[in-house]
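Incident log, structure service

09:12 report received: a user says their structure output differs between two submissions of the same chain.
09:20 pulled the input from the user's history:
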Amino acid sequence: MKPALFLKTLSVFTACISLHTISAAQGKAFKRDNDTLYAYINRNGETVPKIQASLIRKWWPEDGKWKAEYFDVTGLQKLEITTFSDKDFKTRDGIHVKYNRNGLIKDSGNYVANQREGTFRGWHENGGEHHVQHYKKNIPVDTGVVFYDDGKLMQLTITNDDGNGIFQDYYTTNKIRQIGKLQEGKRNGTWIVKRENGTKKMQLEYEADSLIQTFCFEEDGKTQARGECIFEKEPSFPGGVKAWTNFLQRTLHYPDEALNRNIQGVVKVEFTVNKDGSLTDFVILNSPDLSLSREVIRIMSKSPSWEPAIQFNEPVKFKHIQAISFYTRRETRAF
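09:34 re-ran on a clean worker, output below:
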């Protein structure tokens, strides 16, 4: 659950179609080439030892710029291709492509001086179109759409060249769930969240994309509800970060197999936090060794129920990614 995407169809359209068609070929595993540089990096893009890395970056000069490819730490999966104007990798300037885990394109388009320009498109892992959005100096313009994975419309934006217009979000039944105005591509003024029966569920007040106030309403859509009124909140371990760290220290066992071979590094696990806070659907995304993967699955299976994600003041399912670091000379960490 993320804030609504403001997504765009111009000259890049044909190029994006081509990228989608050949994405499987582009999704090859990491390979060391004589004419390229590579480094292990953390989530901030800083060069770190392999055991602390979240990504591998491979890069080379091309047409006066720097082309960079990003892989998971195993080197088996390509995650992103981006063109930079500087060798510090701070300013995107050129073609940008992100990949789903199955190799299909998740998002693609063109940057000019770190701003989105032209058409961006993306696809679901099942191959269905996810979004089409046009940008002008990083501002969503024209008509943009986002689709559910079954092809139904999820979001619609209609704006002029200044990014002023409307945003609408839909239930899978095609009924409007959320509606509001955009000013220079940012949420502004009063936004309304509706129930499927059409009554007002929430009223949100924005200033330049910042949520200032929320109001919740009873089923009649008129009487203001008492108690908490939460627009969105991610799931969390009960008691917060300190309690989560204590749980790891009590529960986690560094596998002897990994210790004997001095295997260290970060394990990333994806799982679903259900409406009742229970955890299911564990998938290891990155891991230095199978023994560490098994240990992470074991401790996550023993986790108490989490506080569920909230959207529109109700608990919802949420896909969460947790990273757990294994080190032989320091505490195991989660971040």
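09:41 both user submissions now match this output. Likely a transient worker issue. Closing.
09:42 reviewer note: The chain has five helices and 22 strands. Confidence is low (pLDDT under 50) at residues 1-26, 330-335.
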